[in-house]
Amino acid sequence: MSQTSQQYDAVITQCRDLFSNKMKDYGSAWRILRLPSLTDQIFIKAQRIRGLQTLAESKVDEGQESEFIGIINYSVMALVQIDKGVAEQPDLSLEESLAQYDHHVGATKQLMMDKNHDYGEAWRDMRVNSLTDLILQKLLRVKQIEDNQGKTIVSEGLDANYQDMINYAVFAMIHLSKAQIP
């Protein structure tokens, strides 16, 4: 599992770098987004990935990887919003945003490591298409939970679903990576 940990960290470093650079360009403007808006952004990314996986030709010169990065980063933003609430104005510095990012990714990675232990890294035998479908399923669940004002009877809450989407997207990125860590 140390290989998984290293591969996970490599993907997250790539995502965090993009997040950091976008923070430098735009600040924390994303803090005004309500959860359904973030969910819809993730849904758009997942639908595009599914389209790329099924269409013979793509008219936009961006592959699945950039969309999975978007899923990861928007999901982290959603976890921050759940934790801190929606702001009326951008209110986080670069340093505060990155600290929040690291906190939520750290908790999500620990969840992955715990599940990996229990499931024996079953994701390694999964197809990227299946991981995409699982992300879309999680999104439909999140939309239903949002429509229920965040209430569930027996199911996991919003945060667990966003964490799962991050982990599925990281797994997909690892599968798509040409440079596997030995």
Can you give keywords for this protein?
182 residues; mainly alpha
Task: Please render the helix and strand layout as text.
Elements: H1 2-26, H2 35-54, H3 64-84, H4 94-119, H5 128-147, H6 158-176
Structural write-up:
With 182 residues, this protein is mainly alpha-helical. The protein is 72% helix and 0% strand. The chain is built from 6 helices and no strands. It is globular.
Cα gyration radius (Å): 16 Å
- The helical percent reads over 70%
Structural class: mainly alpha
The number of helical segments is 6
Strand content bin: under 5%
The end-to-end distance, rounded to whole angstroms, is: 12 Å
| Shape summary | globular
Assembly classification: single chain
Order of helices and strands: HHHHHH
**How many β-strands, per DSSP?**
0
For the sheet with most strands, the description reads:
none
Overall mean confidence score, pLDDT? 93
- Poorly predicted regions are none
